[in-house]
Amino acid sequence: MLPSEKKSLIRFLIIYLSSTLLLFALSSWIFYTSSLQNIISNQQNRLKIESKHLLSKLRVLHQSNAPILYYPNSSEYKSAIYDKNKNYIFGTLNAPLQENLADRYITHIEKVEPYYLGAAYLMLRSKVDYSPIIELKKRVLLFMLLAIVVFGVLGYFLGRLFIKPMRDSIERLNSFIQDTTHELNTPISTILTNIELIETFDTNYQNKDELKRITIASKTLSRIYDDLSYLSLNHNYHRDIQRIDISALLFQRVEYVQAMANLKNITITTDIEQNIHIDIDKNDATRMIDNLLSNAIKYNKTGGDIKVSLQNKTLTIQDSGIGIAKDKLHIIKARFQRANSTEGGFGIGLDIVNQIVEFYGYGMSIESIEKIGTTIKVRLK
After folding, report:
1. CB neighbour list of residue 89: distance below 8 Å, 6 or more residues apart
2. Sign of the alpha-carbon dihedral angle for 221, 224, 229, 232
3. Burial 105-138 (b: 16+ CB within 10 A, else e)
4. What's the pLDDT tens digit per position in 71-81?
């Protein structure tokens, strides 16, 4: 799966799962609070029923002629009787006559009519039975976990269906690029070969300027062909990583693009430290340098300048071109994105550079000011 497909799938899953789970969380909360109220209400009703049984026992105790009266006792709850002024008379619960505000207890107050044992009020209090509440929490949690799993799997397959048209379009585009690059290879190679033959054997060729322009155009086509071939291979590109002299290669590539720079009267100055060696595939290094240099030329002004530096394994390319707006700096590394549409191009150069930088674990920074220029630094290893 391509990075763009992964991003689209992840975004879809985040939105889909967030909205779905939010709905289920709200439904679960409503269900939980309603069920919790029912559980507490049932326990209160049981306490109310117990108060009726206790009143009947108090009535029997009131009518008894026994010399000693035994107050009814229970292990399930505590109780007490109070007079008309709500003063405590007797009981297994020694507390003021009031509704209990603590969450751990349930309280029920019953009026005594007629009075038994001089009591006007009966209060019962018991601890909340948390076992059904714990069971309710377990059921709600299990429901949420099952919902996450079920809707996660469903969302994944829906997401795959969602990105399928994009995948088909990308595959068609890749097929088109592969076919196009295959067809371009032969004529580009033929043109470059014949230019070299003319320059080598026909020293009296009169139209040197025309030949130079043809050379520049052919080199541009050759670089575009290489870039498109690289993109069409995606992650299947075979790399022959070996230790190379990046200083020497940088000198070669500056010389390679010099003709293109001369066409716009651009001056290239170099400050390249000698004998810098790094482990990299030579084609990757060439592709990275060429794209950075060609962008510096393409987006430069006529009569501008380019400074190429390699110091302490940091490659710096600074141009005096049109610059990049701050709000577009974050998108220029993306494929097919261009900060400026006045110049030609496919918007793939910095994407390729960024891919190479990320593959080798390099660091890249871009600083730019509109109408002043752009500085790109690549920290090599």
Report:
1. 80, 81, 82, 83, 117, 118, 119
2. negative
3. ebbbbbebeeebeebbbbbbbbeeeeebbeebee
4. 888 888 899 99
Cα distance from N-terminal residue to C-terminal residue, the chain: 29
Residues 180/227, Cβ–Cβ less than 8 Å: no
**Is 17 domain-assigned?**
yes
CATH number of the domain enclosing 299: 3.30.565.10
Note the pLDDT tens digit of each residue in 250-277: 998 898 888 888 888 999 999 999 999 9
Element (H, E) at 283: helix 282-298
Domain membership flag for residue 324: yes
Q: What is the pLDDT of residue 378?
A: 93
Amino acid at 18: S
The residue among 360, 338, 214 whose CA lies nearest residue 287 is 360
Residue 125 pairs in a beta bridge with: 78, 107
Please state, in angstroms and rounded to a whole number, the distance separating the CA atoms of residues 326 and 168. 34
Q: Is there a contact between 205 and 198 (Cβ–Cβ < 8 Å)?
A: yes
197 falls within a domain: no
Per-residue 3-state assignment (H helix, E strand, C coil) for 26-38:
HHHHHHHHHHHHH
Place of tokens 């799966």: 1
Task: Tell me the per-residue pLDDT of 13-27, one tens digit each, with 9 for 90 and over.
Answer: 888 888 888 888 898
Which has more pLDDT, 113 or 182? 113
The total number of structural domains that make up the chain: 2
Structural domain of residue 350, as residue ranges?
241-379
pLDDT confidence tier of residue 344, bands split at 50, 70 and 90: very low
Helices (H), 202-245: 208-233
* Same structural domain, 371 and 245: yes
Question: Which of 28-32, 119-123, 218-222 is predicted with the least confidence, judged by mean pLDDT?
Answer: 218-222
- Where is pLDDT greater, at 88 or 334? 88
Rounded to whole angstroms, the Cα distance separating 53 from 38 reads 23
What tokens does 175 get?
Answer: 């097929």
pTM for the predicted model, two decimal places: 0.51
